[in-house]
Every structure is written in C-alpha cells, then in structure tokens.
Amino acid sequence: MAVAFLQAHGRAVKLVTLDIGANDLLYCTNGETGGIDADCRAAAFTSLADHLPSILTTLRAAAAPGVPIVALNYYNPFIAVWSKDPALAYESATLVSAFNALLENIYADFDVPVGDVAHAFHADDFTLVPLLDQPVNVALLCQLTWMCAPSPQGPNIHANTSGYFVIALALLAAMH
C-alpha cells in the first residue's frame, strides 16, 4: 500500500515516516497480567530482523530520489503494570529496550534517522516520584497515552494528543 502510494504520488511526497514492529511485540503480551510470552517475543524479534531490511529497501526504491525516510522507536506501554507488578514493568523495560536497539541497528544500516520516542517518554526512567508514588516513566505514560485511562477509552496503548505532540517533536529532532 505504501509502495503504491509512493509510486502514484512520486514527487509530491517530501518525507516518509516509518513506525513498524510494535504490533508484533504487543501480540506477545497478556493484556490482563502484563506477562510476556518468551517464544512469541523471540519470533517478533526474528520477524523484524528478517522483514525490516527488505521493507526499507522497497520503500527507498519506491520513493523519489532524495526523499528522506525517518523512523521512530517506541515508548513502553507495558510499564502500566507497575501498580500491579513492578517486576513485570522492569521486565518490559528490558524487552522494549532490546526491541528498540534492534530497530535502531537495522535503521542505522540503511542510514535512516530514528526519532527517539523512548527517550522522549523517559521509557527507562524508574526514578520514583514520591508525590505520585510511581516512577517518572509510568507517570509520563499515563499523561501521554490512554494506558491509565478508565474504560471505555483505556487502557489503550496509543498516544493521546499530548503524546502525539511529543512523538512529533522526537521525529522532528531526528530530521535535524
């Protein structure tokens, strides 16, 4: 679909952004417990390593010459389990950090800059905020996504308006 769009619109496209792989990882978590299936995780990493290089090659060939491709890494929605199981929150941070490292290594091989959304969301900052009785990363996740919102809006891994603004700033920073 992206290739067809790029081919159809050629010179009108000035930037390609890439946000890929998170759903594969999301599929590996239990929404009730926050637990992560190790076999599924391994398959998601393998799938990303196998498919992302060909996706990048195909997009680069389909885009007009000189059109930049910029990608994003990920914040960690799974740390929302902090209040139920801090150990799982730490485990998820290790998982998402490894996933982001894999993404960033592949993107680097293709000279694709990466918007550091993980850093913008302080994904690995477990510094406790005493007034909130939760870590910085969990507090920001709750402010920038729907993960801590009550039903029917939440819990939902997607960013809210403020979160998308932070993501856009990370993308913009990668372009400079």
Q: Short summary of the structure?
A:
The strands form three sheets. The protein has a three-stranded parallel sheet. It has a two-stranded antiparallel ribbon with strand order 4-5. It has one domain: SGNH hydrolase (Rossmann fold).
Structural notes for this entry:
The protein is mainly alpha-helical and 176 residues long. The protein has a single domain, classed as Rossmann fold, CATH 3.40.50. Helices cover 51% and strands 11% of the residues. It has helices at 2-9, 22-26, 38-62, 86-109, 117-120, 136-144, 161-174, and strands at 16-18, 69-72, 114-115, 128-129, 134-135, 145-146, 156-159. Strands 1-2-3 form a 3-stranded parallel beta sheet. Strands 4-5 form a two-stranded antiparallel ribbon. Strand 4 (128-129) and strand 5 (134-135) form a beta hairpin. Helix 3 packs parallel to helix 4 (86-109). The longest helix has 25 residues, at 38-62. It is globular and about 50 Å long. The two termini are 28 Å apart.
Q: What's the total number of strands?
A: 7
Number of helical regions = 7
CATH architectural name: 3-Layer(aba) Sandwich
Instruction: Provide the CATH top-level class.
Output: Alpha Beta
Q: What strand line-up does the widest sheet have? A: 1-2-3
Rg is: 17 Å
Distance between the termini: 28 Å
CATH superfamily: SGNH hydrolase
Sheet bearing the most strands, described? Answer: 3 strands, parallel
Q: Per CATH, what is the topology?
A: Rossmann fold
- Overall mean pLDDT score? 92
State the low-pLDDT regions, or none. none
Q: What's the SSE pattern?
A: HEHHEHEHEEHEEH
Q: Name the quaternary structure.
A: single chain
Large-scale geometry: globular
